[in-house]
Amino acid sequence: MKIILSEFINFIRKYKIHFIGWSIFIFYEVVIMGLIRKQFSPVGNYVFFYIFNILLFYFHAHFVMPGAKMKTVQALWRLPLLILIEVVVYICITANLANFFHRNGYITFLSPPQFSLDGYIGMSYRVIYFILFSSAYYYILGYFEERKRAEEKEKERLLVIIENQRIYADLIKSQHAHLKAQINPHFLFNTLNFIYTSTRKTTPEAAEAILALSEMMRYSIEEVSNTNSPLIGELEQVENLIKLHKIKSHQELYIQMEYDEEVAELEIVPLLVMTLVENMFKHGDLLQQAHPAQLQLKYKNAVLKIETTNLISKNQMQPSHHIGLDNVKKRLKAAYGDQAVLHTLQQEQQFKVSLEICLSPVN
């Protein structure tokens, strides 16, 4: 019961303008005109006809007018035909029902409906009267709907302008950030070059480490924005990485790198090989001359195969979580999709990584 009451209240609130409008109209016709004419009909008479008149009003506005296709040439013949059908159907239903209720004593009519020409003309006038009001209501609704659409379009236009302004502001910020990113590395490389020049005579080993680090950083910054880059450049940085680790560890590191000239000319996503090599330095044992770490690059039938093999270091403080390899997989997925496959294999104390990338043949 509470749910029904709540829904009824919501219905009243939603269509309160309609209820207010009909209340004023009925008050005018029933009370004011009754006082002027000094004559009132029974309540059932008013209830009966106003139910049908209100139904006619909304039926004409929401079904007949749209069905007539008012914005087309077809409305010239559709609308008169539909109105004629409305008038005939309304008169037939109301006249017969009113006669039935009056004859059986359900409703007392002050002026019972007459099945005559004068009676039909009088009822037709009443039908046309409400049809005209309904047509006006239809055009008012159309005006407000058109206005609402115009406001929505204007709102969308303003949102587009705001979004374009935001994108432009973001672009300006990114341009400033790009300029700052260019300035900062420039300062860093100048500083490293100064340190290299200052230490080259006194501590040549440290100077070589600074030079290798500078070249690796320059490569990383310049190539990271490229989709693909020649492998020869990355292989040179792999040699710098090996040199840097040798200087850092103060020990002889055993790592072998093999590749053909054809491989050096290929272009792939940058920093993949360096990540695989860095993974060997981080988790591998490169101190065993009898079991050196290996990096092999082969290209055959448009497939580049990169393999790394190394002993697993026994001095790791924590177990490896292969975060670097996971990042490589994500980059491969983004760049090559199903055309690249990365496999890892651990056998006893040896760890092997195999990467295959399907590439187009080099022209």
Description:
The chain is α+β, with helices and mostly antiparallel strands and 363 residues long. It folds into 2 domains: 13-162, no CATH class; 200-358, Histidine kinase-like ATPase, C-terminal domain (Heat Shock Protein 90), CATH 3.30.565.10. It contains 10 helices and 8 strands. It has helices spanning 2-14, 16-37, 43-67, 75-103, 117-199, 204-223, 231-249, 261-264, 272-283, 323-336; strands spanning 229-230, 255-259, 267-268, 284-285, 293-300, 303-312, 340-347, 350-358. A hairpin with a 2-residue loop joins strand 7 (340-347) and strand 8 (350-358). The longest helix is centred in the middle third of the chain and has 83 residues, at 117-199. The mean pLDDT is 83.
Derived from helix and strand composition plus strand pairing, the structural class reads alpha+beta
Molecular shape? rod-shaped
How many distinct domains? 2
Q: If you consult CATH, what is the topology of the largest domain? A: Heat Shock Protein 90
CATH architecture annotation of the largest domain: 2-Layer Sandwich
- Which CATH class of the largest domain is shown? Alpha Beta
- Spell out the helices and strands N to C: HHHHHHEHEHEHEEEHEE
Number of strands: 8
Q: Uncertain spans, ≥5 residues at pLDDT below 50? A: none
**In this structure, how is the largest beta sheet organized?**
6 strands, mixed
Radius of gyration: 44 Å
Distance between the termini: 81 Å
- Quickly count the helices: 10
CATH superfamily of the largest domain: Histidine kinase-like ATPase, C-terminal domain
The portion of residues forming beta strands comes to 5-15%
Helix content percent band: 55-70%
Mean of pLDDT = 83
